[in-house]
Design brief:
Rossmann fold; 7 strands; globular; 7-stranded mixed β-sheet; alpha/beta
Length: about 210
């Protein structure tokens, strides 16, 4: 029996050469992390992803409206022109956890084209992505005046529900912490993405609550 032997040769590198090459190495790593972020999302939440595996890509959804929304908006994979520029400004840690949700918000605004959007005062990144999805939308931060077309919340708010009409849509962050409240609101069609909730109030549809593996 023959055994193959590998011989490793190590070349010393000076501190000066290491410092010179460090920026390019970090840039390469950043690009790698940018493309691996969707995979990292599954790695960091493996149990959630596996538990919702059968709720992916619209499988088992019979409503034409819900199926189109899941496949054409939630699971849209074509890159929008604004992604690259907006993502470049994101702080590096946010690219793993928040980039996916921010992309979804841009797609939602682009798909729905809301006339008014209500946001919390500290939703600075969400505002940028929503604005790029619908540049004609009038954005209100913290204070609502009249009925709004789209509302994004980080925490439950019964007061905000008074400003949502039949054609409004509600987006709720950190849904896994506030699922009980989300299920109690008078929405018609709701989408549970675990970390993110989307609720429509249009009464032309049948009342449904969909889990989506996002």
């Amino acid at each position: 029996m023959h055994f193959s032997q590998r011989i490793y040769v190590y070349y010393p590198i000076s501190a000066k050469d290491f410092a010179r090459n460090l920026p390019s190495k970090l840039e390469s790593y950043e690009k790698y992390a940018y493309f691996c972020a969707p995979v990292m999302q599954k790695v960091t939440n493996p149990l959630v992803w596996l538990a919702r595996f059968r709720h992916r890509k619209g499988y088992g959804v019979h409503s034409p409206f819900a199926f189109r929304f899941i496949t054409d908006v939630i699971y849209e994979r074509h890159p929008f022109y604004a992604y690259k520029e907006l993502d470049r400004a994101l702080p590096f840690p946010k690219r793993f956890r928040q980039r996916k949700g921010l992309h979804l918000m841009l797609r939602l605004a682009n798909h729905l084209q809301p006339s008014t959007i209500l946001l919390p005062k500290d939703a600075w990144w969400e505002k940028r992505y929503l604005q790029n999805g619908c540049k004609s939308a009038r954005i209100q931060c913290g204070r609502q005046v009249g009925e709004v077309s789209m509302c994004f919340l980080k925490e439950p708010s019964d007061e905000v529900l008074q400003h949502l009409g039949e054609h409004s849509v509600l987006l709720l962050d950190n849904l896994h912490r506030h699922r009980e409240w989300f299920r109690s609101i008078p929405s018609v069609v709701s989408f549970d993405l675990y970390d993110f909730g989307i609720a429509f109030f249009d009464k032309q549809y049948n009342k449904q609550y969909y889990k989506v593996n996002f």
